[in-house]
Amino acid sequence: MLKKSSFRKQLGNLIHPSENHSYLLAVSGGADSMVLASLFKDLRDEKQHSECSFQVAHINYRLRGEDSDKDQKVVQDFCEKNHIKFHLYEVSEKDKKPENSIQLWARELRYAFFKEIQEKEKLEFLVTAHHLNDQLETFIINLSKAAGINGLSGIPANDNHILRPLLQFSKQEIYQFAEEKRIEFREDLSNKKSDYLRNKIRNEIVPKLQETNDHFLENFKKSSSYLNQTRDFVQKQVQEIENKLTVFNQDHKILSKEKLDQESDFVKFEILKKYGFNQEEEIPKIFKAENNSSFFSKEYQLIVNRDELIFIEINKKTENTHEITLIDRFDFSENRITINLNDSIEDIDGINKNMEWDFDAEKIQFPLCLRKQQDGDEFYPTGFSGKKKVSKFFRDEKLSILARQKIWILSDGKNSVLGVIPFRQDRRYAKDEKTERILKIFNETKNEI
């Protein structure tokens, strides 16, 4: 049964005890969210404001005319009466509503609003009023989508600083609590329409299921708990398998492709899903791909490198593509300037190789820079006739995609390639018998004892 003591226990199960927790409550004006707000108010009052700092956010979507405004008033009046900071987002013409997927649009809008408030007000947790009936509806939706154990485990009670402390309580318990405590709330009559999948499940399927067993919801809650425990156990086992397959884990992660391919399809999917590769039909393509093939998820680049799968965070890769200025100009009062690349960059290309290039300084347009390869880069490498695209040069050198990403390009003020470090310089700019002013670029590797 929902009581202040049982709610306090559920909230305590989700977070570590602290006097500094702060919360943003998502409150729509319905029974569940108004009960949530009332419980937080009581908790705050009991602790005399010291351990339960919270604020309230409400979105007026203006989808139901006057009813939307009345929802807003209920929430706003509650906050004013109880001295709670209230944040309001009113949808206007600038918020273009899609012709379909209204629910997805509304969800993205409200979570963007919540995030903005959290950052501005420095509120640690977002708290929503999802309850046991929501959990059952989500289970049925995911069951119809073949979502697997993660989907059947339902809505997490604590997920990335989003708390759902009412998940253990049914809609009936929430209504009963609201009645006992005389908590004002508003019913969203649009939920009675079965025009959306969730509403159809809520209005037509769940009542039929509950008719089959007086304890249906209570039994579902136990089943959900078992599924969550099973999921946690499975995830632990999958992580142990991944750890055994990991051959490198520093600035990027490398897994043994051969050993992973020997695992079950389930294990392969669970591991690759962690890196954003969650389309089951794509997984066989990864294991059949040619050497140096790349696959991209939102956060990772996956490189197939012979018997390895290399995962590189895209944001980290981007951080390493900046430009380094070696020298702004050449002082022509001098006949020689020497630049040691070890003073500018470390681990030049992951290959332990010395280089020493002499340029005719008068042939170069400054500044002189180091950067990463760009589309269309080409140069006239020493030891070759004619010009060559840098990408073709990489292929001829049999460099993996990972090795290519580490290599620096020496370029001039026109962004022309002066050399591919540490392999070849462009012969057009090299020192010759007529050179009077020399620019020496070298890299001296350090021998470890």
TrEMBL record:
What Gene Ontology molecular-function terms does this entry list? ATP binding; tRNA(Ile)-lysidine synthase activity
The record ties this protein, via Gene3D superfamilies, to:
HUPs (3.40.50.620)
What EC number(s) does this enzyme carry?
Answer: 6.3.4.19
The residues that cross the membrane are: none
Enzymatic reactions? cytidine(34) in tRNA(Ile2) + L-lysine + ATP = lysidine(34) in tRNA(Ile2) + AMP + diphosphate + H(+)
- Residue span of the signal peptide, if any? none
Q: What does this protein do?
A: Ligates lysine onto the cytidine present at position 34 of the AUA codon-specific tRNA(Ile) that contains the anticodon CAU, in an ATP-dependent manner. Cytidine is converted to lysidine, thus changing the amino acid specificity of the tRNA from methionine to isoleucine.
Which family, according to UniProt?
Belongs to the tRNA(Ile)-lysidine synthase family.
Name of the molecule in the record? tRNA(Ile)-lysidine synthase
Organism of origin: Chryseobacterium jejuense
